[in-house]
Amino acid sequence: MSAEESLQRAEQLLERLDEARARLETTEDPEAALQILGELSEIAKEVESEIQRAKREAEADADEEH
C-alpha cells in the first residue's frame, strides 16, 4: 500500500469517526453510548495505524530517491 493510499484510507476512517461522534451526540441510551465510544476508540486506532503506515512509506520512498 502506498503512502497516498494510506492517507486516503485515513481520511475515510476520519469520516467514519465523525459519523460515530455525531451518533454519540444524539444518543441518550447509555448502552448505545458505550458501544459508540468503543467504535470511536477502534477507528482512532485504525487512523493512527494508517498515518504511521503512510509515514513509513513516505520515508521509504524518500530513501529510495537518494
Concise account of the structure shown:
This protein is an all-alpha fold and 66 residues long. 91% of the residues lie in helices and 0% in strands.
Can you tell me about this structure?
The protein is mainly α and 66 residues long. It has one domain. It contains 2 helices and no strands. It has helices at 3-26, 30-65. α1 (3-26) runs antiparallel to α2. The model has no long low-confidence stretch (mean pLDDT 90).
Helix content: over 70%
Structural classification: mainly alpha
Average residue pLDDT? 90
What form results from the Cα inertia axes? rod-shaped
Count of DSSP-assigned helices = 2
Please count the beta strands (DSSP E, at least 2 residues each): 0
- Proportion of residues in β-strands: under 5%
**Total tally of structural domains:** 1
Give Rg in angstroms: 16 Å
